[in-house]
């Protein structure tokens, strides 16, 4: 169950009921958050506390490393 909670928090989820679809956004959809690959997120300092609180509250072991990421370049 922990895996499902983490996945839904990070990536969000969609539910279809009675012909209606509801989308619940995930953490990666927030401004200042980028999904880099399996188990790797880049998170601005302003977004770090909510993520850290969720992981701690759910007993998820995690490592935080300080890093810098450049701007996204257009094609």
Task: Explain the overall architecture.
This protein has 75 residues and is α+β, with helices and mostly antiparallel strands. The chain has one domain (2-57). Helix content is 31%, strand content 25%. The protein is built from 2 helices and 4 strands, in the order αββββα. The chain has helices spanning 2-11, 45-57, and strands at 13-17, 20-24, 33-37, 40-43. Strands 1-2 form a two-stranded antiparallel ribbon. Strands 3-4 form a two-stranded antiparallel sheet. Strand 1 (13-17) and strand 2 form a beta hairpin. It is globular, with a radius of gyration of 14 Å. 0% of the residues are buried. The model has no long low-confidence stretch (mean pLDDT 92).
Give the tags.
75 residues, alpha+beta, two-stranded antiparallel sheet, 2 helices, 4 strands, 25% strand
